[in-house]
Amino acid sequence: MKTGSVNSSIMDMFEQGKVLKICAPMVRYSKLAFRSLVRKYNCDICFTPMIVATDFLRSVKARDSEFTTNERDRPLIVQFAAHDAQTLADAACVVAPFSDGVDLNCGCPQRWAMSSGYGACLINKPELVKDMVRHVRNQVDNPNYTASIKIRIHKDLRRTVDLCQKAESAGVSWITVHGRTAEERHQPVHYDAIKTIKDSVSVPVIANGDIKYLRDVESAHQVTGVDGVMAARGLLANPAMFAGYEDTPLQCIWDWVDLSIEQGTPFTCFHHHLIYMLERVSSQPERKVFNSLSSTSSVIEYLQNTYGTVQDIET
């Protein structure tokens, strides 16, 4: 881990009046190489994958595998799963020199997380969330360091508003709202609920859910008035989405190859990202061949033969 320069607070970015474009925390995927890629294409803030705070504190091996960064990887938010205020604050203190804020995951709907007291079950524990936010604010020795939460919504939206207002009273920096309940998966996002939450608090609110193109960023802002928009699957499919590309441009694909080689990305991760990026621009027979490749050299050869290099396009 390298220490980044202490910069001004992310909160200053919200003051600039533009809708912030944010890369979501994605297990296995929003790691350093991918964050480096989306930053080349107009992504304003990146989140790490969710890290279980107790494991992170207990094991040096977990810290080294779960959290890698460099001095260009800013602004960076480290997302933790936690259900204990002191544990979250301790984890925040460890990563504070290398990041700009921590985020408490209150939205993960997976069974393992919920049964361990993490993720979306926390939206039903507003006092605990309030306590966790307060501990981070009180114990990280940097007034610019942010403490945010990422939530899902309740069926009874009054409970969500209450949660957000309690978090605000504890000093939460901003709130990301995935506009679905913990039970919903692919149902339409409840943008009306996100608007209600935005209208109920004075801290910045980020909308999350079904952002697949740059035009979705603007429409989400228009409907809800949010201060920023967070994308997950949309960025996996097209890391250049925030720069206005409809599909992944060839330059972006080769940027990913370069970054992955430079940073030593494991083959499985390198290959999976390309499978996502190529899905919309390749035929089924092409995908079948590409998905079966098993080495970096065979992937590079396939890309050169099928799509050409960036130099081929420029000549």
From TrEMBL:
Query: What's the cofactor?
Result: FMN
Q: Where does FMN bind?
A: P25, M26, V27, Q79, H178, A232, R233
Domain DUS-like FMN-binding residue range list: 23-291
Q: What EC number(s) is this enzyme filed under?
A: 1.3.1.-
For molecular function, the Gene Ontology terms on record are: flavin adenine dinucleotide binding; tRNA-dihydrouridine20a synthase activity; tRNA-dihydrouridine20b synthase activity
Q: PANTHER family from the xrefs?
A: TRNA-DIHYDROURIDINE SYNTHASE, TRNA-DIHYDROURIDINE(20A_20B) SYNTHASE [NAD(P)+]-LIKE
* Role summary: Catalyzes the synthesis of dihydrouridine, a modified base found in the D-loop of most tRNAs.
What is the protein name stated in its UniProt record? Answer: tRNA-dihydrouridine synthase
